[in-house]
C-alpha cells in the first residue's frame, strides 16, 4: 500500500482475486474475510483512499467481510507489523468469523 500504482488498484485486484478464486473452486458464494491494516501514511499515496475503496468492494459483495484492523499496538517501523500487531489482527479476524457463523 506504499507504492502508488499498487495502492490505486488494490481494491480492484482484491475484487478480481476473490471472483477468480470463487470461479476456480466452483463456489460462487465462498465467504472471504479480508483484514486491512492501517494504510501507510505517506504524502505520495495519501490521495488514494484505499480504505474507502476496499469498503466499497465489501459493501457490494454479500460474501466478503471487511475487517479493519486499525487498533494495533504501536509499531516501531513504518512498514513492519510487530508480533503483537499480528496477534491483534488474528484476534480481529477470529472475532469477525465467530460473529458471522
Total number of β-strand segments?
A: 2
The number of distinct structural domains comes to 1
Helix share, percent: 40-55%
Adjacency order of strands in the biggest sheet? 1-2
Q: What's the SSE pattern?
A: HEHEH
**Which spans of ≥5 residues are poorly predicted at pLDDT below 50?**
none
CATH superfamily: SGNH hydrolase
| Major sheet description | 2 strands, parallel
Category by helix and strand content: mainly alpha
Radius of gyration from CA coordinates: 14 Å
Shape: globular
Q: What is the name of the CATH architecture? A: 3-Layer(aba) Sandwich
CATH topology: Rossmann fold
- Measure the end-to-end span: 30 Å
What portion of residues belong to β-strands? 5-15%
Roughly what is the average pLDDT, rounded to an integer? 90
CATH class category label = Alpha Beta
Structure description:
The protein has 101 residues and is mainly alpha-helical. The protein has a single domain, classed as SGNH hydrolase (Rossmann fold, 3-Layer(aba) Sandwich). It has 3 helices and 2 strands. Strand 1, helix 2 and strand 2 form a beta-alpha-beta unit. It is globular, with a radius of gyration of 14 Å.
Which tags fit this structure?
mainly alpha, Rossmann fold, two-stranded parallel ribbon, 2 strands, globular
Briefly summarize what is shown.
The chain has 101 residues and is mainly alpha-helical.
Amino acid at each position: 500500500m506504499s507504492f502508488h500504482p499498487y495502492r490505486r488498484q488494490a481494491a480492484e485486484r482484491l475484487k478480481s482475486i476473490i471472483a477468480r478464486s470463487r470461479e476456480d473452486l466452483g463456489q460462487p458464494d465462498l465467504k472471504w474475510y479480508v483484514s486491512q491494516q492501517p494504510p501507510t501514511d505517506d504524502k505520495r499515496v495519501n490521495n488514494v483512499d484505499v480504505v474507502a475503496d476496499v469498503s466499497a468492494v465489501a459493501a457490494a459483495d454479500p460474501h466478503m467481510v471487511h475487517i479493519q484492523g486499525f487498533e494495533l499496538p504501536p509499531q516501531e517501523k513504518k512498514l513492519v507489523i510487530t508480533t503483537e500487531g499480528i496477534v491483534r489482527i488474528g484476534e480481529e479476524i477470529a472475532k469477525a468469523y465467530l460473529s458471522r457463523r
